[in-house]
Amino acid sequence: MNWLFNPSVATYGASIDQLYYIILVVTGIVFFLTQGLLVYFLIRYRTKEGRRAEYIHGSTKAEVVWTAIPFVIVVTIALMSKSVWDEIRHPSQIPEGAMEVQIMAKQFEWTVTYPGPDEVLGTDDDFSLLNQLHIPVNRPVVVMLEAEDVIHSFFVPEFRVKQDAVPGMRTPVWFEVMETGEYVIGCAELCGTGHTRMSGTVTVHSESDFHSWIAQRTAQAEDS
After folding, report:
1. Is residue 197 within 8 Å of 108, Cβ to Cβ?
2. DSSP letter string over the chain?
3. Cα torsion 112, 117, 121, 122: sign
4. How far apart are CA 87 and CA 101, in angstroms?
């Protein structure tokens, strides 16, 4: 069920969507229930000729009920959220063998640094591209996210990924995409006058096409 979002193409997208819809249903029920009661009380206790106000002490039982029910709901959602959060954010959950790339965010662009054929960042065969993230399908990818100037936010809706890039911090964010195609990278943090122009593209290749692309880019970097 994805009637509010574009379908997710990342492995943990379904877990995030399920949690979102649970929260949406719960808050929707609470909203309509409270608004319905509000309308009822407005009509039921509206001003009438000859009616006098009277003091009502209240009900301790009712107060306990309307405190306990939200408490149970909030704690339940928190416990459900923790399992999803640990899956996508805890460093120990990053899959082994994930491809690592570095993205430096600055006003108003994304600089993506690739590890080259040796698949190790920080070596001589690294190369960089502006606003272009190329990754293989069905393989975990770890983005080491940094910011040069102000806070930015790396946002790919179809991956269900949104992570702030903070100056002075190096933040890992991982995902595994299950479908080839092109997707838009947006900045979800107001970062200056050029914020709306700060976008990039994620191209998800098949495994063979990705290796061919890496070889081509490496050859171009060596020739330049």
Report:
1. yes
2. --SSSPPP-BTTHHHHHHHHHHHHHHHHHHHHHHHHHHHHHHHHT---TT---------HHHHHHHHHHHHHHHHHHHHHHHHHHHHHH-GGGSPTT-EEEEEEEETTEEEEEE-TTTT-TTSTT-EEEESEEEEETTS-EEEEEEESSS-EEEEEGGGTEEEEE-BT--EEEEE-B-S-EEEEEEE-S--STTGGG-EEEEEEE-HHHHHHHHHHHHHHHHH-
3. negative
4. 20
> CA-to-CA distance for 224 and 217, rounded, in angstroms?
11
Q: pLDDT band for position 56 (50/70/90)?
A: confident
Q: CA-to-CA distance for 185 and 200, rounded, in angstroms?
A: 5
Distance CA 102, CA 165 (A): 12
Close Cβ partners of 198 (under 8 Å, ≥ 6 residues apart): 107, 108, 109, 110, 152, 186, 187, 191
Q: What is the pLDDT of residues 185-216, one digit of tens each?
A: 999 999 999 999 999 999 999 999 998 998 88
Q: Whole-model pTM? A: 0.84
Q: Nearest 5°: phi and psi at 186?
A: -120, 160
**pLDDT tens for residues 154-171?**
999 999 999 999 999 999
